Every structure is written in C-alpha cells, then in structure tokens.
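S1.2 Input.
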Amino acid sequence: MSIAQALLNQPRVTGMKPFRDLMPALPGLGDLPRGRAPSPVWRDSTTDRPRFRPITKKDAGKVYQEAQRFERATRQAGKQEGALGRSALAVLHVLLFDFLSDPRGHCDPPKETLATRACMSISTVARALVKLKAVRVLDWSRQCIAEAGELGGVVWRQLANAYRLSPVSQWLGHRPRTPAPSPAAGTWGQPARVLDVIEEAAAATSPRECVTALELDPHNDLAAALARLSRSIQARNGEVLPERSL
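S1.3 Output.
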C-alpha cells in the first residue's frame, strides 16, 4: 500500500471548531448575533457636530417662493410634478419654517418628525429628501455618537441627519428670475405728467375738439385768446362752432 492510499484510508476527524470560536470574545462584543456589525451606523457618518446657521422667517419665505417657482418652471406638459414635486415642497416647508427659521437654527429632525409635521409616511419623506438632494436644494451629513458598551468598549449609535440649505444659485437646473427694467433717470417717485389745455388742443383731430380743449381752462388767457381766434377763423370759413356751455 502506498503512502497516498494510507492517508486516504485514515478516519476523517470530525467535530473541529472554527478558528473564530477558539478566540476569546472581545470586550462588549460577546453577545452580538451572527452577521451583524457591532455598531450599526452608516459608513460616512461623522461625530463632528455641524454649525447651523438660522435664517429669518422673511428669508425662509423667499426661499420657499423660489422653490415653488422652480417647481412650476420645471413641470413639463402632461406631467403632474416638476423637479421637486408636492412631497418635496411639503418637506422643504417643514425644514424652513419649523427648524431653519428657529432662533437656534438646529436642523436635525428625525424622519419620523418630518413625516408627522408634513402629514405623510416616512418612506415618502425619504423619497422627498432624495429629490431635494438630487437638485442640490439641500444636503445632509449623517451623524453618530460614541457610547460605552455594556461589557466595555466603544459602541457607535446612529443619530438623525443634519440638514443644510444650499444657496438658490446652486440649485441644479434653476434659472434666476429676470429683473424688471429700471425706470428712466429722473423719474423716481414722480407722478405722470398731465398735458395742459394748449397741448391737448394741439393733439386734437378736428377744429371743434381744438376749441373745446382750449376753453377747458377759463383762467388761461392764452388758451382763451386762441379759442376766440379759432372761432373767428371757422366763422370766416362759414363754419359756426357751438358756444361753450357754462
């Protein structure tokens, strides 16, 4: 019998434990279920606390009106929604007026809070946030915190996202509003100019309208003289104009 055949005929050893079972459990990680991370947090989470910048109610209203105009401008014919949609506008309204315009300016509400205040489901809120981030209306950073485990060690706990609003000029696909033309120099606050009786008479299309315009101001001696001259010329030509009624 060869050596190879002898090795193959040896009884197979059973009941050996995996190598990971021979190692002692790490502090705080002994009771974890199989296949689960010791700290279930997102990979890009950070412990750095963001710096929130509160805005006024007036500025929040301007941003929301611009978002509404952006939604109308991007809505295509036959479509119900534009780049944002009604759900994203509702979530943006909650973020603007309930959190960003708060004196503290803390904008890190959980999705459950956004869903309650916007009167929609949590899944709808998640889709609305994705839309707002896709067009760069807002962005967020995932927050986490380090805590001590029950058996020692460090355990990471996921916190709510911290949201920050982007300037309107950075919105993807947004076109700024065309400003209204400025008035001509020297006309700021001035009322519209009213023509006098002589200018109105010059713009008349018939002799009767000319005489009527000249006789509108009885205190204007020049207009009265021109009215009498016009009447005499028309009388010489055989046209009698009606007298002005007092």
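S1.4 Remarks. The first strand starts at residue 138 and ends at 141.
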